[in-house]
Amino acid sequence: MDLISPYYLPDPAQRLAARYADVGVRSLRVDASGGRSIVEALPGQVNGYNVARAWRAQGYRGCWVFALGTNDTADVSVGSAVGLTGRINEMMSVAHGEPVMWVNTRTELSGGPWSEANEHAWDSALHQALARYPNMRIFDWAALAQPAWFLSDGIHYNSVGCAARARAIANALARAFPRHGRSHRQVVM
Questions:
Q1: Is residue 181 very low, low, confident or very high in pLDDT (cuts 50, 70, 90)?
Q2: Is this prediction's pTM over 0.70?
Q3: Are 100 and 63 in contact (CB under 8 A)?
Q4: Where do the H-state alpha helices sit in the chain?
Q5: Angle between helices 116-129 and 84-95 (to 10 degrees)
Q6: In terms of C-beta density within 10 A (0-12 exposed, 13-18 middle, 19 or more buried), how is residue 152 classed?
Q7: CA distance 61 to 50
Q8: Which of 76, 82, 122 is nearest to 102 (CA)?
């Protein structure tokens, strides 16, 4: 949500849509919501799986970019019945073999449901999923994110971090799925 927000990114050229256009994306659909999880939903919101499923039912076909997982690790750590692998499998089932770039996760927290240890578990589950999904690439955002880009909560990004994240995601998409074919690297930076 913060990558498309004029509050975090007052300059439209720094927002996700402009960054995607810079790398040649001609058609873009975004559905971002704060606190989104693949399975659970906050009051008045729709979970990630149901958003993607609705897009598919409406005829969407193309490349998917999933930036989900941070809240999923927290949900699993507090006792959700759906584990990490099950969540990944749900989202990948919606893609039906189409290209998927999944943005991995990072926080700056040492404890609690959103701890970096839980985020590492999510990222490990994503890496394991690569063996099952040849259409999937992982953008290693966790390797690029800088501590100075985080807000004081250790989870969300400040404006500088949002601008860097939008630019990095678009560039990673261009590397993961270049105009003619796919990257042979399953993890892109």
A1: confident
A2: yes
A3: yes
A4: 16-22, 48-57, 70-77, 84-95, 116-129, 141-144, 159-176
A5: 50
A6: exposed
A7: 16
A8: 122
